[in-house]
Amino acid sequence: LLCVLRRRTRREGEPPLIRGFIPYIGKALQFGKDAHRFLEAHRKKYGDIFTVHIAGRYMTFIMDPLMYPSIIKQGRQLDFHEFSNKVAPFTFGYPPIVNGKFPGLNEQIKRSFNLLQGDGLNSLTESMMGNLMLLFHQDHLEEGGDWKRGSMFDFCFSIMFEATFLTLYGRPASGCRHSGMGPLREDFLEFDSMFPLLIAQIPIWLLGRTKAIRKKLINYFLLPRMSHWSNTSQFIKIRAELFEQYDTLCDVDKGAHHFAILWASVGNTGPATFWAMYYLVSHPDALEAVQQEIHGVLRLSDVEFSSDRDVKLSREQLDKLHYLESAINESLRLSSASTNIRVAQEDFSLRLDAERSVSVRKGDIIALYPQSMHLDPEIYEDPQTFRFDRYMQDGKEKTDFYKGGQKLKYYLMPFGSGSTMCPGRFFALNEIKQFLCLLLLYFDLELEEGQSRATLDPSRAGLGVLLPATDVRFRYRPRTV
Ligand code: HEM
Question: Which terminus of the chain, N or C, has fewer Cβ atoms within 10 Å?
Answer without folding.
Answer: N
